Amino acid sequence: MLVKAGTNFAGYYALDNGGSPGTWVQVGSTVGISAMNTNLLSGLAGTSHNNGVLCTAVYDNVSGNSNRNVTLTPVANQSGIATINLSVSDGWFTAANTFNLVVPTTGSDTPPAISNLTNSVSIIENGTATIPFTVGDAQSAPSSLLATGFSSNPNLIPNANLGFGGSNSNRTLTLTPVPDQTGTATISVVVNDGTLSTTNTVALTVLSYKPPVIGNLPASVTMMENSTNTVSFTVSDAQVAVSSLTVSGFSSNPALVANANLGFGGSGSNLTVTLIPSFYQIGSNTISLVVSDGVLNATNSFLLTVAPPTNYFTAVASGDINDPATWGGKVAVKGDTNVWQTGGYQIDMTLTNVDTFYGKTFVLQTGGKFFPNIANAVLTLNNLVLAGGIIICGNNGGLNLDLSGQTLTLDSGTVQSGGGTVGGRDVILGDGSLAGSGTIDITGSAGNGFYVQFQSSINPTNFTGVFSVNDNGTLYLPAIALTNASFGLNLTYPGQYQNLANVALASLVINGANLPPGSYAYTNFTASEQSFLVKSNGTITVVTVIPTVPVLAPIDDVQTLIAGQTLSLTNVATDLDYPPPTLTFSLLGSPDGLNGVPAGMVINPTNGILTWRPTIAQSLLDTMTVGVQVSNNGNPPLLAQQYFDISVVTPVNPSLTNVSLSSRRISFTITGDSGPDYVLLVSSNLTTWLPVWTNSAAMPPLPYSDAITNATRRFYQVLLGP
User: How distant is the alpha carbon of residue 146 from its chain centre?
Assistant: First the structure.
């Protein structure tokens, strides 16, 4: 550590890690003197130091002396403040310390000047202000002048909230009053050149400023769907005329009420907002109103509920659903919560008409509550789209929905059997087709056994969504062939499925568990899963909706055999699709297309067994690349391929050994590689050769005894094949 000694810039002392005095390093090495005021030292002649400033520095460099001195000679006729940096090194470590050198002005010194500083400033409550000013000094550089300040009212603005910035002559003062405080204070700005200082003042006023106010706004507003509503409110501001205020708003649920559907009106302090919900949408959201005076904003909000109207329509005659005569002179509002009291009448819908029920309840109240007890009511619907609504059977009697050969599109919503215990409050749909891709809830009431049924006259092929059976719902489905599987079934407690026939589904989820593709009889389900199945008169087959690619089991990349030997490879393929597809195997040439399938190589298309017996000539070829392909019978077919190399080795030349002669009969043994055909030829003149013996796919050694015993001479040779 460096310790200052004396008052005349005495030397510094440092201990190294060994405890002995450090060694002062000569000027020009590591001893440094730097100055904030370069004019102060720049004229000093002497050795250079680490900041490039020339000065005269005399060091007491007596070896072993722990007390050292440095003598500094400032530039003649210069004054100001400079920071002196000293460093000491023992050859291993270096220590440093600094001190400020103040050279006062002698003779005619003048204080620094502050100019362009405003006399007063006003700030709005919780605001800030930045004030520019300039500084200067006749004897010192502007960069060496130090600017500080203090406040006369620390409760309004403490000294710590006076921020000085800028550089050289151009300085700034940033004022940050205490939050939520108002009042006045005198801010003193002080500039010091090291000897003399100058003070100027600024009168600060912090003004009270309050945000605008939104008043007389209700806490909640309820309106009917497909209508508009106007809400009144007031605005005020303590500082600004109400005509200068701007008003806007936003919705927490733009799908129900878009921001663009908030219309503002009124004048002066009395304003209005007109609410225009989206068509056929119901629900709740928060409407927030914002008023601004250009400085501060205020927000107030209310809860908006858009509710469907409830309309009761009681049939007075059989007829069209859109015919006023059917309902005694009234026509139901499409899409609203319409309670259709059909009684014993048959209600039809115009064949060319399309009705869409968006997020509403389409209630059929049939039977004894409004009319004499009728066992069933019939509603003939054509081109009905269910989009978020509820088809429900209410009161006594069942509900037969006759689609008249048309399509019921199921985008979203609920089909619900009736409540209570009197009468068969079932919902039965027939004579038509299903379409759509939504999730349709099937619900009911506890303990009464009423259900939703799709009869065999319903074609569900074009419905690709999901029936979600829950909340005491019970669903009946007709028999569905494997080729017609298109929709899924999700059973959640308390919901059940009446398994009356063989059905094929695109998916089956029971109590959150997704069952894999396969065929399930009642006994294949766990006891817990069986609780979701009321009856078991058929199987449930979960088919594969998105076909998968078959998979070939890997085989060795390189196959090596001797010509004449037989290669037999069993290729195994799997396909997870259900029902299991038909797989067909075939051979491929090299992937680059330069070589086809080797001659004689075959594969069984059914079991994938590849066989090949290469010829002797084929052993002279280079390594061959062959592919195996398996494809399923999907539409389109999906396939998998894999390739391997085959190297055919030329067999060794056969040899004749153990030659012997007995009773003029010659015998010998043929040796060589196993696999090729061995053909023995004989000649008496080395010109004409006749085959006398063949051993196909032989397994040497092969013994042979010539049957000829009276020949004068015999020559033998062995040929390999094929």
Answer: 56
